Amino acid sequence: MSGSIQNTFRLPAIAEQMQDLRSVSAGDVQTIAARLFKDKPVASIVLGNAQQLKAGLEGRVQTEVMGEIVAPGPTP
Q: What is the pTM for the complete model shown?
């Protein structure tokens, strides 16, 4: 049955696919990652006590607490 799947999707043999996977280097992954993520915004998620985290991160990074309603600032 696996032969019919390979024929249907025109996939190379499993052994060939595994060899291709083994030939990928860490440098290849870094090159692709740099291309995909260079100059792109990054989001980080931190779990814990919201008040402690906000106090520890205040002034260092922009924070947002899920479900927290932020009062609008003054209109310029």
A: 0.40
